[in-house]
Amino acid sequence: MKKWIFIALILAGLFQLYQNNPQFAEQPQAFLLASDEEASAQDRLAEAFQRQLSDIQVGGSGRVIKILADDTKGSRHQKFILKLASGQTLLVAHNIDLAPRLDGLRLGDSVTFYGEYEWNKHGGVLHWTHHDPAGRHIGGWLELRGRRYQ
After folding, report:
1. CATH classification of the domain holding 39
2. Domain contains 3
3. Residue 130: inside a domain, yes or no?
4. pLDDT band for position 106 (50/70/90)?
5. Whole-prediction pTM value?
6. Phi-psi region of 87 (alpha: psi -120 to 50; beta: other; left: phi over 0)
7. Is 106 exposed, middle or buried (0-12, 13-18, 19+ CB in 10 A)?
8. d(C-alpha 78, C-alpha 109), whole Å
C-alpha cells in the first residue's frame, strides 16, 4: 500500500512540474502563419500585454519601425522594435552570441518570430529567439526574407 501512495505522490509531482514549466509549453503546429493563425498570435500577444504576463512562448510577425544599437553588455544582442498588425510594439532582443545577426535588416522589413515574451509597459520584449545549446529551453527563431536565424 505504501508503495502505491509513493508512486501516486511521484506522479502528482511530475504533473505539477510539467504544468508549471515553460520548457514543456506547446510549440506552434506550423511555423508558416496563415491569416487566422496570425490573428490568434496577435490576440495572444495583446492578452499577454493587457494582463502583464511574462515567460510566454509566442509567434507572429511585425514590421521593423526602429533599429537600435546592439547591447554589448554581457551576451551581445541585436535590438530592434517591431510594430504588430494590432498596433502593439515589441522590442526584439536577439542573442547574436548564439544565433546569427539578421543581415541587412532595414526599416519596414517584415520579420516573423517565435520566442519568449516578457511584459513591459512599452509593449513587451521578445527574447530566446535562438536555440538553447544546453537544451533546457524551447528554441526560438526569427525569419527575414525567407532566411531563418536561430
Report:
1. 2.40.50.140
2. no
3. yes
4. very high
5. 0.71
6. left
7. exposed
8. 15
